[in-house]
Inverse folding.
């Protein structure tokens, strides 16, 4: 199934079975729709109607063969997410042995009536005879989660994660990134406009196979020691000012996106990459910073810096080997119905944009009127003008792709900041801190052996034996 969703109302894509989240996840809504439609059978049908959470009745993976192409974080959207799942089908069972009578299907309550047309044989069964999966799910899913298409008969042992050859992300941002101001309370060299040419140059350095340990969130619990990933596309592109196939004059700031396609990605990798590009666009760093951070021999320890905001990131597409998935899209009427739902959300946000743009204009006009009055009064009284904000505030404004204006202190170049430990050191510290869990036959004896081995090394290790 190919899915699209806006991530603002969700705590990421993945359902956290043993961890309550402040917002629901996309998977929770998807699992609920699959269970409610009975496309997937619940674990216990007797509790189906009384269960407070349908997700508790989701079967194990060996039953559903469930897999996902990507795991987006809180706030992140996706327009090409792919999941694999075994669901109920209209397909008839294999042919009966020779001599078995053809079953007669009659209308309910009319035992003596004419038999209905028999179901098509497996050989005659086609896509048109299958359940309308897209329509069924879209009736049950929230409006900001949409099923787009489905693909029948994937290869044996298909995994939406491991069969995926590459993933395509887009990170959207405006230029200027903040309200443009003269003598702003930021670096005098940054008025709010990003240097797109420098960002483009820096983005090109990501291409190819590189070690991205300095461009991700390091998590020792995962014990990752391979941070090499291949980047096929990396560029800064302008968003075309078109809507519904018609060119329109774009009002307000220009919109751009960081266009990124790679074999796979590390945790928070894209948001770390664009964060560095923003610093370069602000002229706080040079494009060569990307090369410095990719040189893990010279710089094996990640400098501390803030990653970009989540809301503007979109998992645009998941790519699979050619011919592996044959996507089935709805008919024109179905697409129109889908567009009606999406259009309502777009129309609401568009009206909000127009109103806020009007408010910006009113404040802008009021500001300049107030400034003109103040200058006239100063001229009258011959009082010295106050120092501009840039002379009063020696810090900088951090662009993180979000809608906030983030004031920070004196800027410290990335390569001069405090560093994290090397990956190997972080992993080793975690292994020593985490209790070793042993299970299976003879677990008590194994626990004693582990404790004894640890004691000979002069270390104290907590050992937990569990069923």
């Amino acid at each position: 199934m190919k899915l699209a969703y806006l991530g603002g109302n969700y705590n990421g894509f993945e359902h956290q079975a043993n961890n309550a989240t402040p917002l629901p996840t996309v998977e929770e809504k998807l699992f609920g729709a699959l269970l409610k439609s009975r496309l997937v059978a619940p674990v216990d049908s007797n509790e189906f109607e009384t269960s407070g959470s349908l997700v508790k009745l989701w079967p194990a993976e060996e039953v559903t063969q469930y897999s996902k192409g990507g795991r987006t974080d809180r706030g992140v959207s996706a327009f090409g997410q792919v999941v694999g799942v075994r669901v109920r089908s209209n397909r008839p069972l294999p042919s009966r042995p020779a001599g078995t009578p053809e079953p007669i299907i009659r209308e309910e309550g009319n035992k003596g009536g004419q038999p209905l047309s028999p179901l098509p044989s497996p050989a005659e069964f086609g896509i048109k005879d299958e359940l309308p999966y897209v329509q069924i799910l879209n009736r049950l899913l929230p409006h900001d989660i949409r099923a787009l298409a489905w693909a029948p008969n994937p290869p044996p042992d298909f995994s939406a994660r491991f069969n995926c050859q590459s993933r395509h992300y887009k990170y959207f941002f405006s230029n200027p990134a903040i309200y443009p101001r003269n003598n702003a309370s930021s670096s005098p060299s940054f008025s709010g406009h990003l240097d797109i040419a420098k960002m483009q140059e820096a983005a090109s350095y990501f291409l190819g196979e590189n070690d991205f340990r300095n461009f991700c969130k390091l998590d020792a619990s995962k014990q990752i020691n391979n941070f090499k990933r291949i980047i096929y596309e990396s560029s800064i592109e302008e968003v075309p000012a078109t809507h519904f196939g018609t060119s329109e004059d774009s009002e307000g700031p220009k919109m751009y996106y960081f266009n990124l396609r790679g074999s796979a990605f590390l945790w928070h990798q894209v948001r770390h990459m664009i964060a560095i590009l923003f610093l370069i666009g602000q002229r706080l760093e040079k494009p060569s910073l990307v090369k410095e951070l990719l040189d893990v021999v010279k710089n094996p320890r990640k400098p501390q810096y803030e990653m970009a905001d989540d809301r503007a990131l979109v998992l645009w597409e998941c790519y699979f080997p050619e011919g592996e998935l044959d996507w089935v899209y709805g008919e024109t009427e179905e697409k129109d119905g889908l567009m009606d739902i999406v259009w309502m959300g777009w129309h609401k946000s568009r009206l909000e944009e127009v109103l806020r743009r009007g408010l910006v204009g009113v404040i802008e006009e009021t500001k300049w009127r107030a400034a003109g009055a103040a200058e006239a009064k100063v001229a009258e009284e011959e009082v010295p003008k106050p120092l501009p904000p840039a002379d009063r505030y020696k810090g900088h404004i951090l662009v993180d792709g979000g809608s906030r204006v983030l004031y920070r202190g004196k800027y410290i170049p990335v390569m001069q900041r405090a560093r994290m430990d090397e990956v190997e050191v972080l992993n080793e510290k975690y292994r020593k801190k985490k209790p070793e869990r042993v299970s299976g036959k003879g677990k008590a004896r194994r626990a004693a052996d582990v404790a004894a081995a640890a004691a000979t090394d002069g270390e104290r290790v907590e050992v937990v034996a569990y069923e």
In short: Residues 332-381 form the longest helix (50 residues).
